[in-house]
Amino acid sequence: MLKTSRIKRWFMLTHRWLGVGMCVLFFIWFLSGMVMMYAGHPKLTLQERLAHLPPLENAATGSLSARASALQNPEALQNPDAPQSPDTLLSPAEAFTAAGFDTSQPVEELRLSRSRAGQPIYVLRGEGRTFIAIDARTGQRVPPTDRATAVASACVYWMYSTDPPKPQRCPPAPPEAHPHLSADADAPTQQSHTVSPTPHPDTAAGTPPPAVPEHTTAQSERIPAPRYLGTVHEDAHTHSHGLNGHRPLHLVQLPDAHNTLLYISGTTGEVVRDAPQPERALNYVGSWLHWLYMFRDTAINWTSLIIVLALIGIATAVTGIVAGLIRWRFAGTYRSGSHSPFAPGMMRWHHILGMVFALSTISWIFSGLMSMDPWDIFTGPESTIDAETISSERIKPRRAKATPQALLQAIRQGNPAAPEENPSSRQAPTSGQNPSSEQKPAAASAKAVSTPHVVELQWRIVLNKTVVQPVFQPLADGHAAPPPIAAITHPDHSAAADTTTHTSGHTNTGTSARVSPNRGDGRNTLFAARDARPWHFSPARLQGALIGLSPDLPPRIETIAQDDFYYYRRASHTMTGGRREHPLPIWRVRYSDPQQTWLHIDPATGTVLGQSDSRARLERWLFALLHSWDLLPLLQHRPLWDIFMLVLGMGGLLLSGTGIWVGVHRSHLKWRSWRVKRARTLRDGT
Question: Staple 578 to which of 502, 519, 554, 572, CB 3.0 to 4.6 Å?
Answer without folding.
Answer: 572
